[in-house]
Protein: Cytochrome P450
Amino acid sequence: MTPDIWPVPAAEDLASMPLESLLTREYQADPARVHERLRAAYGPVAPIELHGVPVWFAFGYDEVRYIMQNPDEFWSKHVGHWRAFTEGRIPADWPLIPLLSADNSGFHDGDRHRGLRGAWIAGLREFQEPGGEHTQKLERAILKYCDDLIGVMTEGAPTGWADLAAQYGRPLPLMVANHLLGVTLDRGEEMIMDQWRLLDGPDAAGAYQRLNTALLELATAKRHRPGHDLPSAMFAAAPALTPEEVARELFMLSGFLDFTGSLICNVILEAVGNPNLRTSVTSGQIEELVNRVALLNPALANLTFRYARTTVKLGRFTIAAGDPVMLSISGAHADPLFASALNRDTVRSTRAHLAWGAGPHRCPSQRLATQMCTIAVRRLLDRFSALTLATPPEQLPWRPSPFVRALRSLPVRFEVNPNAVPVSRPGQATAGQEPPPEETDADGWRPPARSGFWTFLRKLRRAP
Ligand code: HEM
Structure:
């Protein structure tokens, strides 16, 4: 169905409308309630503000899907189409400016976007081709990282307490980042720590600078000495790209892998918080569980802006050319038009959701991210005979963010399954198996310094 959207002459003055903030404790604790209230008051599109800047919030399923699928006609992702920005009405220190004005594929349209996206698709292909040599190596590496993290978390104790966000879900994708980048794990520890600092601090500004420098050095090294890794495959697919351009694309990995960590935690929450589900989940069903959680509790809840290229009608409003629209995936999934057709009690869920986007900007890494989540959750359920939430679900802390639905911590009590054998301990190659490729790299590139990644993780251990 095509939503109520077409070019029309007159437009609302967004800035003069009553605006609801999304950066509130209420939104952090219960976004669904806020969506419900906004929907009752405004329909599928509402005027909101983020750090004092007015933005349209689209959270009707048809509206969100339609905008995702029709970017070049009516919508742009480039900040140069934002009227308030080009007219100098957005404060230079507005916190979302660095993200929204980034020079990478996520914020370009047309040919520029297609060229960069093509490099991503080609670069990721060999890591997510089902059964492919590098896909299998990556899957073995992920399994080992899971066991490494579980090993540090339990340190031989049969029972205990752990924060599965800080000690498992969040570090795991950052370890996978180093595998994709072709950086040895021990030498890449500082990069892992900097990706973490970038998102949570301390020293986010310093981490930003160091990561930029490290990724540019890495891209330059891979340009001259290619390996079997993402940057080398991106250069091979798009030889005209410069190391600066590839480094800017690779910088996006921190964010995407953070969404992956958040989805892992949201899936774990669903699995451990629902004992019936946990006992009924076989390994073949976990991928289905990942899909179900991506639908019901999407990690990337709201997207960065689209800017109207022309005056358009959207929902009950007329949007002026140059106005920003934020698309809400979680809001769209809760739209009664979509949600009323869902059966929340079944273990099977629809794939017709928007958690991976849609149209020309759709996520090129859906299979890889799904595999990461599936392996992570399956390994956890294999290695622990019991996992129970150590905090009532309604008291779990969520990160304050306009974009992600991500747990700040996920405290659990665990009982180790004595019959499940880890594939290896941190730093050891797996007996009888080829070590994962990041332990054998020979590209000569070295991140600047070693961090205490494992020391940091050990410090997170707590007595039960
Ligand atoms: C659970 C994890 C992930 C989720 C939920 C997710 C979701 C999404 C969504 C919704 C978009 C569309 C954004 C938009 O339309 O504005 C997107 C784009 C993208 N994703 Fe993912 N993603 C995930 C993981 C990853 C990973 C691991 C990678 C890379 C290894 C990745 C690479 C990308 C790229 C490069 C784009 C931009 C595509 C473009 O603009 O053409 N994503 N992702």
